[in-house]
Amino acid sequence: MTRYVLVRLVNGLFVLWAALTVSFLVLHLVPGDPVSVMLRGGGGEGAAIDGSLADELRADLGLDRPVHEQYLDFVWQVARLDFGTSFSTGDEVGAVLARALPSTLELAGASLLLALVLGVAAAVAATLLPNAPLRSAVLSATVVGNALPSFWTGIILLQVFSFGLGWFPAYGDGEFDQLVLPAFALALPGVGLLAQVLGRSLRTALAEPYVRTARAKGASRLRAVTVHALRNAAIPAMTLFGLMIGGIVAGAIVTETVFARQGIGRLTADAIGAHDFPVIRALVFLAGALYVLVNLAVDLIYPKVDPRIVLRSA
């Protein structure tokens, strides 16, 4: 087990390095100059820029050096977990992330919990229903949430439950009632995927001999599903749930913008618009580290759920 974890962590470091290198190259190849954006401020594209001031600022930021020197300096900073200073605000990037992260963690945690509870409930309900048309209807209803973009779902939820009924506030964060609508908007696509995958796995597991044996011994259909079949059927759903974490973090960019939440998603959108390279690189590192750690955690949970699974390093 220890060897497996070490090998996965080494592979994860390679994934992080590759993601950061690609992000570095892309940011330096795309059109746009962060110095020009900073100096124009609110003046728009047509605002005049003092060339000498731009050159001075570019030198202060190290953007006048050759790209390979900037890359080596960037790698050294990342190795020390030092992402420098934000071009936009002048604050340390770590402090900028620390301010935005709690709101996104709150939203992501609530969304994942909702997706898990509703997805499992829909899959189990569809499996327990007495006839095929009802089962198909339940699973088909979950697909609707998956087919709708989260920003569109968020706008509809705002129109109905905020502007129409007035049950929840339209924007902001920090309070429970401000979390409900964005959490539902972000969770609905995951509910459909989880219900579909888990529902299919449950139907497969119910056809296994051990479930038929339990039924022959007098176990009810509810017990056969929840006690005997659900644990083995959970493996594919666990894999999907791990991937959903990355999807929810990505979806937070749009959802936090719609609901005016000051989190990582909103920070990402602002940093891209301002060509704030240090913040973007830190966000790429954070997303890559999350991907590596979540996938490792899911792999380590597999043997706990199904003892037949044995983890071996290559």
From TrEMBL:
**One GO term of the biological process aspect:** transmembrane transport
Q: Any idea where the ABC transmembrane type-1 domain is? A: 101-302
Per UniProt, what is the membrane topology? Multi-pass membrane protein
Q: What is its main location?
A: membrane
InterPro entries, sorted:
BPD_transp_1_N (IPR045621), MetI-like (IPR000515), MetI-like_sf (IPR035906)
State the Pfam families in the record. BPD_transp_1, BPD_transp_1_N
The name of this protein is ABC transporter permease
What domain of life?
Bacteria
Location within or outside the cell = Cell membrane
What Gene3D superfamilies does the entry give? MetI-like (1.10.3720.10)
**What is the species listed in this Swiss-Prot or TrEMBL entry?**
Streptomyces radicis
Question: Which cellular component terms (GO) are annotated to the entry?
Answer: plasma membrane
> What's in the keyword line of the UniProt record?
Cell membrane, Membrane, Transmembrane, Transmembrane helix, Transport
Q: Which residues cross the membrane?
A: 12-30, 107-129, 141-167, 179-198, 240-259, 279-302
Q: Which family does it belong to?
A: Belongs to the binding-protein-dependent transport system permease family.
